[in-house]
Amino acid sequence: MTVAPPPAEGFELRIETLIVGSGACGMVAALAAAEAGQEVLVLERDPVPAGSTALSAGLIPAAGTTQQALAGIEDRPALFAGDIQRKAKGEADPGLVAALTGAAPETVAWLTDGLGLPLTLVTDFDYPGHSRRRMHGLPDRSGAALVDRLRQLCEDRGIPIVCERHVHTLCADGARVAGVVARRPDGTDEAIGCGRLILACNGYGGNPDRVAREMPRIAGALYFGHAGNRGEALDWAEALGLETAHLGAYQGHGNVAHPHGILITWAVITEGGVQINAEGHRFWDESQGYSEAARAVLAQPGGTAVTVFDDRIAGIAAQFADFRAAEAQGAIRRAGTPEALAEAFGLPPSAVAETLAAAEAARVAGTPDAYGRRFTGDDPLAPPYCGVRVTGALFHTQGGIAIDPQGRVRRRTGGVMPNLFAAGGAAVGVSGSGDFGYLSGNGLLSAVVMGHIAGRATTE
Asked: Which of these, 196, 203, 129, lies nearest to 429 by C-alpha position?
């Protein structure tokens, strides 16, 4: 990936707002820009729009929404901001946190009332670290469905998304970006000029060398993100002298069905489930969150664990399309006793029974267990018991180009580039410096809400 001066012969095409990447971030930015009266073009490297969003549950966190009010939930952006900073140990940029949490309810209202997406609130379980229930998604809780709906909205509004266009060069003229050079499928290049450019392209989880350099603790883990996340935005940032931040931050997940490769919702844990290793023992406080769970599970014998829950919890998890797919593929097993469930996974029956009994004793006592977890408020696990063998994975990176609250990229020497924006995986998130700071939904908060902000923004 390179940065070069504008072509001497000029650009073949010039567009007001050019967007690189057509995941949720890029398409939201395109819809917002078009609604603001801007001429928009989206360039996508892949044959069809997808991005990391398509691999997620498609949930957008927001505080102070109509959906929350209808559910009797009192919430406000300041509470959400506090939750983010507690999880990130105060390391997230306060201005960026305020911008995202403040704009999130407006973005959700725009998606529902303005664009007609039937976003509903997840009301039957809590996500770790959130003091209120504030996750909004389509009824089937599918990121792929969210991408499909956004793509259809772009088509309905005549917003061109040109696929199989690999942007490899940014053209800059002094303090401003002037356009890009994109490669066509036949190997030829086209130079496209722009009034402003929004990088909504990617993180770098799909670049093993960069992962090993920036995030050595998760290097070599299963990568569950989009293969195209190679870190081009960081290459451009380095060449342009842009500031980057928290490059070691990432979202992991310790509940990916193995060997099926299907995400199992963390609701199976938050509702009272536990994780047990090959020796039949629990090994950590699962209530910390699913991002931290990746390294905890990978550290166990064989790099796997069995997540144990029950049929009641499975009923809650079944609202997610991924969980239903895991059931259809036989990843979820059921048994009438802890010993029978243990035998189904090749675990020591007596150890599993003792482990579940100890967790139940802590729940009844209302005291922290040996790992510091409190089960207060959870119903007891009851037959039929359910289990799924899982492993840990890297989902997406949370570090990236430093931006201001409008999404404009920051220079290392101070100030911003007035017509270059970054959002989603290309930009730094609000998860601090490691895996510990990821609060559920931070990924789509940065992608969708900052996409909405950047799409509507104007150049200085």
From this structure: 203
- Assigned token pair, 77: 């952006």
Are the CB atoms for 192 and 26 separated by under 8 Å?
no
Q: Assign 91 to helix, strand or coil.
A: coil
Per-residue pLDDT reduced to its tens digit, 246-291: 999 999 999 999 999 999 999 999 999 999 999 999 999 999 999 9
Tell me the H-state helices in 21-138.
Answer: 24-35, 66-70, 77-87, 94-109
Residue 153: both structure tokens together:
């909205």
Axis crossing angle, helix 94-109 with helix 77-87, rounded to the nearest 10: 130
Q: Which residue has the tokens 């990236």?
A: 400
| Residue 212 burial (CB count, 10 A) | 12
Whats the size of the chain, residue-wise?
A: 460
Q: Closest Cα to residue 307, out of 241, 253, 367, 365?
A: 253
- CA angle centred on 323, ends 390 and 113, rounded to 5°: 130
Number of H helices, E strands in the chain: 15, 21
Percent of the chain with pLDDT over 70: 99
What's the whole-number mean pLDDT along residues 85-105? 98
Q: Which residues touch 72 (CB under 8 Å, ≥6 apart)?
A: none
Chain centroid to CA 163:
23
Which two structure tokens, joined as six digits, stand for 168? 């490899």
| pLDDT number for residue 460 | 62
Q: State the maximum Cα–Cα separation within the chain, in Å, rounded to a whole number.
A: 76
Eight-class DSSP state of 110: I
